[in-house]
Amino acid sequence: MTMNATPIRTLLALLAVAVVATGCVTAKPTETEAGTATAAAPAPATSTATAIVSAPAKPDDWCDRYPDSFVCQEEKADSGDWCTRHPDSFVCQEEKADSGDWCTRHPDSFVCHEKTTDSGDWCTRHPDSFVCQPAAPVPSISAYVVQGGDHLWGISSQPKVYGDPYQWPLLFKRNRADIGDADLIYPGQLIQIERDLTDFQIQEAIDHARTRGAWSLGVTEATDLKYLEATQASSASAATADDAAQMIAQASADLDAAKGVGGVWRLIDSATGGKAVSISKLLQAAKAKLEAGDASEAYRMANRVSEAAQMGVAQVAEQVDAGPVYN
Q1: Residue 136, in any domain of the structure
Q2: Residue 26 binned pLDDT confidence (cut-offs 50, 70, 90)
Q3: Contacts of 129 (CB under 8 A, 6+ apart)
Q4: What is the span of the domain harbouring residue 287?
Q5: For residue 137, is it within any domain?
Q6: In whole angstroms, what is the distance from residue 16 CA to residue 6 CA?
Q7: Which of 278 and 100 is assigned the larger pLDDT?
Q8: What pTM was computed for the model?
Q9: 246 and 259: one domain?
Q10: Distance between CA 178 and CA 146 in Å, rounded?
Q11: Judging by beta carbons within 10 Å of its beta carbon (0-12, 13-18, 19+), is residue 92 exposed, middle or buried?
Q12: Into how many domains does the chain fold?
């Protein structure tokens, strides 16, 4: 019986292929095997950098070879104090001085000359100093045009006006004909500035400014009116015959201006029996008082005429600019 060799050879060839394939495949490790596996150490790297050589420590006999070295001087000093090791130091000279006062050690110092001077006032010692020279006087003005944002307080504080904000009542009093409310002025208004004031008049204005109380725009406060009455009375009481004559002349000029625009008022005054009379008649009464030798009363009456005439002119001007009113 003859056997066919081809199938056997084929089987042997397949077995050989299987053996070779099995030897080339790596089985996947289990979780236990993976957890206990150790990574292979990397191959040592070849370094081409130059080796770093540390500086040698200072030899024990360094100070024997270099006794003048600063380090050795410091190390061999008996005391740890700087001034013991360096007695010629400027700092040490200061410390060993008998007195702790700078000027005792340095009497020629400029600062010490200042301290030893009998007077403690700088300008006494240095009269030519720029600081000690008197400030140039600020030229005063007789009138001021109101700018946007101005108020009597600020205008009065300007050096060319009064240099004191608390003197603003003087501006209000002088310009009463043009200022109805001391807290309300308008750009373009011409503010007359009164000069040659007495100390009493200035103090009177300051006292009112400090004690005026509450105020509101568009209202003439009662305290302001009382201030005006008080100033008129005080001015009249101290008026001389010349003062009264000048006030009568001013009132006559103001009255002519009021007549020219049709703004003549009538006033009630005790000198005319408490009746309302025209300011023209009141001015005639003021002249009669002056002739009779009553300067204070003549001044008071003429001042009332002047203020009323000025307010009459201002009122006419406001009515001219006023528009029609419809009810």
Answers
A1: no
A2: very low
A3: 122, 123
A4: 239-321
A5: no
A6: 16
A7: 278
A8: 0.45
A9: yes
A10: 12
A11: middle
A12: 2
